[in-house]
Amino acid sequence: MPVAAQPCDIGFVGAGVMGKNLIMNLVDNGFRVIAFDLDQSKLEALQAQDDAERGDSPPRVLTCNSYTDLLASLSAPHLIVVSVPAGSPVDDVCHKLVDAGLQADDIVVDTGNSLWTDTQRRETEYEGQFILFSTAVSGGEVGARFGPSLMPSGDPYAWTRIKPMWEAIAAKVDPDTGKPIERKAPGEVVAKGEPCAAYIGPSGSGHYVKMVHNGIEYADMQLICEAYQVMRDALAMSASEIAAVFRRWNEGLLNSYLIEISAEVLDTVDAETGAPLVEMILDKAGQKGTGLWTAVSSLELGCPAPTIAEAVYARSISTLKDQRVKAASLLAGPDFDKPSAEQRDSLIDQLHDALYCAKICAYAQGFDLMRTAAKEQGWTLNYGEIAKIWRAGCIIRAVFLQSIADAYERNEELENLLLDQYFAEQISSNQRNWRKAVANASLWGVPVAALSSALSYYDAYRTAVLPANLLQGQRDYFGAHAFERVDKPRGKKYHVEWSDPARPMTRLK
Ligand code: 6PG
């Protein structure tokens, strides 16, 4: 039975945190939405939010109690967004929608953090039953409400259906400055600016790009945390002093949402104890899996992303709290003196430059990963556009993304961000401090796995001759794995009889 007197523009399954805020964003932008959730209290909360925000105007959000009513309230071909936790809940909803009468030309849009291979599998599995489209969403609760970054992918026809809605609700960027256009109040809409929503490519590509976004997010967060730890443990700075440093950094090259919120977290006082709240939070990091997936993908593709992987490991080692507490009294650290108060300012400057250079490397790794995956999957990704839709709305939003977009505008075929002249110069002029920061942290015994892995990545990437020649020798010695020679054409393989004193060499076919 239709719940709406006239058909709605779009239906939602799932009115949890993300679903509810996307719905409110859509209604602010004038779209008619009908929502269904198995949990009635979520629908009540959605309606309560609409009641609180709409003032004297009539209710803008409609809700219903079954999949059948949801379909009946939409005109065909139906357009339905699924906002449920990634994994089997997405398939459960798809099956229920099919049972309720979904048709082959209906569109189902998965907006969760789905594993990209699940999205590919689903597109094939549901072919003929309905069109599975996806849109990866970044920006958390506030982003969903006032402007997320959206990474849609899949069937191009489905994109034409949902494009006007996604472009309306997405975060917007001022094209002249590359900076986000703020939108913070319910009812507000931003009609101007470049929307942070762009079609990414075939099925799976949008979720792959979002996965890499999250991998970069892990690295970015870990790098900031390492700078915090050096200031806290080596420079003996208080949480509010560190917050002040982050706020200053946020005025310059490091300007980003993550630096901004880090300063706010550090400046918050615990109401119960009066201590900085950050010091009352247990140092055990959680993770939902997207950073891990990024690291696994980099290993599978043989595309180095060590700073992202280190960020995942940093979360893992943080969970070993009880062992670390035991080890803290057992395992000796270095006996180098901690720096004096007079040295503080210059050491903070070193940390700033280290964070900036390492951040460039983390992004270089993420973009290289997307490039490598695209090659393998046969996707044509527009890296400049991806950087642009990350300038606002998403968790890694930063002015820095404009520089990445510019780099790809200079050269669409750029193999690695480090090869772009601007970034090469940025690292070249800041690397001295980066090296000093990493060296000092190691002398003081403060772990900086992400900052130093980025430095090793940079050094390895700029090294024409790595020690892999010896490694190939070792492999050939014990396993006859063969090697190429520097003085012979690539692809020709050689093997040496290492145990024979004459060391005869054979060329393998
Ligand atoms: C985003 C976030 C969002 C979520 C991550 C973090 O872009 O909005 O990345 O997707 O916060 O899943 O997850 P972890 O729990 O793994 O840190």
Automatic annotation (TrEMBL):
* Lineage of the organism: Bacteria, Pseudomonadati, Pseudomonadota, Gammaproteobacteria, Cellvibrionales
How does the annotation summarize its subunit structure?
Homodimer.
> What protein is this chain from?
6-phosphogluconate dehydrogenase, decarboxylating
Q: Which UniProt keywords apply?
A: Gluconate utilization, NADP, Oxidoreductase, Pentose shunt
> Which species does the entry assign this protein to?
Simiduia curdlanivorans
Pathway as given in its UniProt record: Carbohydrate degradation; pentose phosphate pathway; D-ribulose 5-phosphate from D-glucose 6-phosphate (oxidative stage): step 3/3
Could you tell me the EC number(s) of this protein? 1.1.1.44
Under the GO molecular function aspect, what terms does this record hold? phosphogluconate dehydrogenase (decarboxylating) activity
Q: Which reaction does it catalyse?
A: 6-phospho-D-gluconate + NADP(+) = D-ribulose 5-phosphate + CO2 + NADPH
Q: What does this protein do?
A: Catalyzes the oxidative decarboxylation of 6-phosphogluconate to ribulose 5-phosphate and CO(2), with concomitant reduction of NADP to NADPH.
**Domain 6-phosphogluconate dehydrogenase C-terminal, chain residue ranges per copy:** 206-499
Tell whether Oxidoreductase is among the UniProt keywords.
Answer: yes
Query: What is the uppermost EC class here?
Result: oxidoreductase
Q: Which family does it belong to?
A: Belongs to the 6-phosphogluconate dehydrogenase family.
SUPFAM superfamilies reported in the protein's UniProt record: 6-phosphogluconate dehydrogenase C-terminal domain-like (SSF48179), NAD(P)-binding Rossmann-fold domains (SSF51735)
